[in-house]
Amino acid sequence: MRQGIKLCKLVFLICALSVSLPLAAKKAGKTGKKVKTGVAIGPALIWHDPGNISSLNLYYGVGGKEHQPAAGAFKFIKEDTNGTAPKFDIEDSKGVKWRAKVRIDAKTDTAVSRLFWAVGYFVTENYYLPQVQVHGLDKRTVSRGQKYISDAGVIQGARLKLRSKSEKKQGNWSWYQNPFVGKREFNGLRVMIALTNDWDLKEVNNGIMEEKGDGVHYVVTDLDASLGKTGNYFTRTRGRLKDYQQSKFIQKVNPETVDFHLNSRPFILSVFDFWNYRTRTKMQQIVKNIPRADAKWIGGLLGQLSTKQISDAFRASGFSPEEVEGYTKVVQERIAALNKL
Questions:
Q1: pTM of structure
Q2: In 3-state terms, what secondary structure has residue 11?
Q3: In the structure, what pLDDT confidence band is assigned to residue 42 with cuts at 50, 70 and 90?
């Protein structure tokens, strides 16, 4: 009887461990393919030519200095309870609406989005502010983030992302099935995930955004689970320089492809939560089997960034001078590794 029970458990464990599936090489559509999203039809885009990369201002990012939030106090609109990071919708003195995110997520999301934008991937305008005065925000009436809010309604450290009227979310997209699988631009995005140690690659963090006048953008909308180390629930981190410095980047170089490090398989006991175990294990394949030519292509774009530009991305995100220097060095080392492939 006992042997029978043990055999059943062994079979179940083997089945669960075998769910790490290779990245699906689904038939890809072309970058300019017309797709229907809701009632809108437009060109599907995941990347655009960033132009002269060496001239980009990574301190202010895609919005530039002129689009940064208006000076003065903000007005509280509502709390956003989606996701795990505390978030609040607020309005500046010019009537522009922003979504404020706090915790270490505010810093990592701001910095990584600037690196993605610099090489041609779509991001929304965002800015990091060390303090944000918000009238009507009471930490006693919100469900999360109270320790970041003073009694006077001041938020300590927040990333403000523009709530654009021209941008409308039409749904989410999958890393395994989308119009760009197999394309250079999509493979470059996979490399960027590895470069920044982003480990939260759930479909809900990928948005299909209808941009008025510019078709449909496929965007990684949440980049905050990065700049630490990948791993399971107990070991992964975000915004921790020491962990980022000690983590590995390239796992294996093959004649035609390259595999990058991404550890996301859950703790072994999580095998009994089958769907989570399967999903997290499969994520590891997102950064595997990437054509070397495509990895070098994105490395060539990143290589056009100066030390100052990379430092500005981290300086604009509220990191300390020591952290700015440390992150800049690691990013440059990883860019150099890509260009040696």
A1: 0.86
A2: helix
A3: confident
Q: Among 48, 92, 45, which residue's Cα sits nearest to residue 68? A: 92
Q: How far is CA 39 from CA 3, 33, 34, 210, in A?
A: 59, 16, 13, 10
Please, which pLDDT band fits residue 269 given cuts at 50, 70 and 90?
A: low
Torsion 110-111-116-120 (CA) sign? positive
What average pLDDT does the chain have? 87
pLDDT at residue 25, as a whole number: 33
Within 8 A by CB and 6+ apart from 230, the residues are 197, 199, 236, 247, 261, 262, 263, 264
What are the CA-CA distances from residue 324 to residues 125, 302, 306, 318, 331 (Å)?
21, 17, 14, 9, 11
Q: What are φ and ψ of residue 179, in 5° steps?
A: -70, -5
β-strands 40-45, 216-220: how paired?
parallel
Q: What tokens were used for 53?
A: 């990369």
Query: What CA–CA distance (Å, rounded) separates 121 from 67?
Result: 19
First to last CA, the chain: 55
Bridge partners (DSSP) listed for residue 220: 206
Gyration radius of the chain's alpha carbons: 21
